[in-house]
Amino acid sequence: MLGLGAAGVAVGAAVQERVDRALSPINRFLPVGGGFRYYSVVDRVEPRDAGDYTLTVSGRVRDRRTFTLADLRALPQTRIIRDFQCVTGWRVPKVPWAGVALPDLLDAVGASPAARAVRFRSFDGAYTESLTMAQARRRDVLIATDMLDGPVSHDHGGPVRLFVAPMYGYKSLKWLDGIEVGDKVVPGYWEERGYDIDAWVGRSNGRDDEPT
Ligand SMILES: Nc1nc2c(c(=O)[nH]1)N[C@H]1C(S)=C(S)[C@@H](COP(=O)(O)O)O[C@H]1N2
Ligand SMILES: [Mo]
């Protein structure tokens, strides 16, 4: 009985690994962070030192600006606690996130009130995402410098990632280094491959948030 059980677990793990590989080129459980999986659509992302990191905000803005990590930390800070939900089924409850609320960053560069969309780029060289301006103006969309009460680790997309609280995880682009204010919602990496452009998780997420 015991032996069979162990074999069953081993087979289960092998099947899970194959499912994981089919879902994404790179996919493994992260050793920390209670339930997160590591996702990357490219084999390897060159780590970027916090000291070398920059985020460029361009497009329909009054002031095109390049922010260092220190610049981002000098802007008004927002902290929220929200679940993280991947569309493939795993969910991490009550994750603390902190950084700059996207509307505060858009105000800092003077984003045009007439602009319709915001596009995000990753320094992995492959992944992009977009939001409508109405979505980007939500206060629960963060330019996250911290998660799980520490700096965003490289595996989680640090030094800086996007966190779109009300939407599935694929909107939360990792290794963020470019934001472009424009007029078009351009389908992102997974959206080109069939995922919905509007990725709302549903009304249950974010009920038990803490004041920021
Ligand atoms: N650059 C980049 N960002 C990404 C992804 C990716 O593969 N590359 N995967 C997305 C998906 S589908 C999920 S669920 C989360 C996973 O975040 P994690 O790796 O920190 O668990 O990142 C999102 N952001
Ligand atoms: Mo995901």
From TrEMBL:
Name by which UniProt lists this protein: Molybdopterin-dependent oxidoreductase
Organism: Actinomadura alba
The organism's place on the tree of life at top rank: Bacteria
Organism phylogeny: Bacteria, Bacillati, Actinomycetota, Actinomycetes, Streptosporangiales
UniProt cross-references to Gene3D superfamilies, sorted A to Z: Oxidoreductase, molybdopterin-binding domain
PANTHER family: OXIDOREDUCTASE MOLYBDOPTERIN-BINDING DOMAIN-CONTAINING PROTEIN, PROTEIN-METHIONINE-SULFOXIDE REDUCTASE
All residue ranges annotated as the Oxidoreductase molybdopterin-binding domain in the record: 48-190
Listed Pfam families: Oxidored_molyb (PF00174)
